[in-house]
Amino acid sequence: MARCNPWFIRCIKPNTEKAPLKLDMPCVLEQLRYSGMLQTIQIRQQGFPVRLPFALFAYRYRCLVPGQVPR
Q1: What is the rounded distance in angstroms from the CA atom of residue 42 to the CA atom of residue 22?
Q2: What is the arithmetic mean of pLDDT over 42-64?
Q3: Is the pTM of this model over 0.70?
Q4: Nearest CA-CA partner of 45 in 1, 6, 12
Q5: Burial track 30-50 (b if 16+ CB lie within 10 A, e otherwise)
Q6: How far apart are CA 25 and CA 52, in angstroms?
Q7: Residue 60 has pLDDT above 70, yes or no
Q8: Which end of the chain is more exposed for a tag (fewer CB within 10 A), N or C?
Q9: Would you say residue 59 has pLDDT above 60?
């Protein structure tokens, strides 16, 4: 996370009782699954960024397009 620029914050409830210092792992895992965070983490681990600025995208992939790519 330190290398990323997060665009949003998701709150995960540690338990359903709102009890301090209690972590209910099945509850947390269910929230992560339903929010799509596990899929996002898998995609990021495979090296696919969430967003690329257009200039970087055009520079990186201009060799795939015949002709002139706008900058």
Answers
A1: 27
A2: 81
A3: no
A4: 1
A5: eebeeeeeeeeeeeeeeeeee
A6: 33
A7: yes
A8: N
A9: yes
Residue 69 pLDDT class (50, 70, 90 cuts): low
In the chain, % of residues over pLDDT 70: 83
- Cα(15)–Cα(28) distance, rounded to whole angstroms? 7
What is the C-alpha to C-alpha distance for residues 19 and 10, in angstroms, rounded to an integer?
Answer: 19
Q: What is the 3-state secondary structure (H, E, C) of the chain?
A: CCCCCCCCCCCCCCCCCCCCCCCCHHHHHHHHHHHCHHHHHHHHHCCCCCCCCHHHHHHHHHHHCCCCCCC
Which residues make Cβ contacts (< 8 Å) with residue 69, sequence separation at least 6?
58, 62
